Amino acid sequence: MAAKAVHLAHRTHWVDFDDEDIPWLAGQEFFRLWRDRCGDRDFPMRADFTPMELKRWLPHVVLLDYLPEKQDCSVRLVGTAIAELFPRDPTGMLIRDLHNGDQTMLGLQAVVDWRLPIMAKELTIEWADRSHRVFDSVNLPLSRNGDAIDMLLILINLRPPQL
């Protein structure tokens, strides 16, 4: 199956993708684990994963709680490699309160609304006191009850700076 491009907030995102469409090996393996945990469901439950099996990816993982009443997400967990990008620890903060949060939330809201994983490739993020960084992400829906998407599991690939 060929990945389909969709445009959200002036950025290209990808839906209906397979693991080989993901541009980094760890992302491919992470997506295969998520897909395996889906079983015959559209998306897995949070309880389908153990911390030990996610351990190798944790430095690059972000776990968000989706707050439907606010159409926002609260940051539950941020891996150490990702946390270093922020001027302060974003745990507990709302996505919309972060730099470019409204734009970021458009892509995350699409995961919830479409009930599909979404991949982003070659996005640039700029913080006021940081240099440009290019990254890819795989944004995956999760559920506590097996029906409503109330969490997002995200793996981020930070690309090395281009010289």
Characteristic terms for this protein:
about 160 residues, Beta-Lactamase, 7-stranded antiparallel sheet, DUF1457, PAS domain-containing protein
Give a quick precis of the structure.
The chain has a single domain, classed as Beta-Lactamase (2-Layer Sandwich), CATH 3.30.450.20. 22% of the residues lie in helices and 31% in strands. The protein is built from four helices and seven strands; from the N terminus they run ββααββααβββ.
Descriptive notes:
- The structure is a single chain.
- This protein is α+β, with helices and mostly antiparallel strands.
- The chain has helices spanning 25-38, 51-54, 80-83, 101-114, and strands spanning 4-8, 11-15, 61-67, 72-78, 118-125, 133-142, 151-158.
- It has one domain (4-158): Beta-Lactamase (2-Layer Sandwich), CATH 3.30.450.
- The protein contains four helices and seven strands, in the order ββααββααβββ.
- It has a seven-stranded antiparallel beta sheet with strand order 1-2-5-6-7-3-4, sandwiched between helices.
- Strand 5 and strand 6 (133-142) form a beta hairpin.
- The protein is globular, with a radius of gyration of 15 Å.
- It starts with a strand and ends in a 5-residue tail after the last strand.
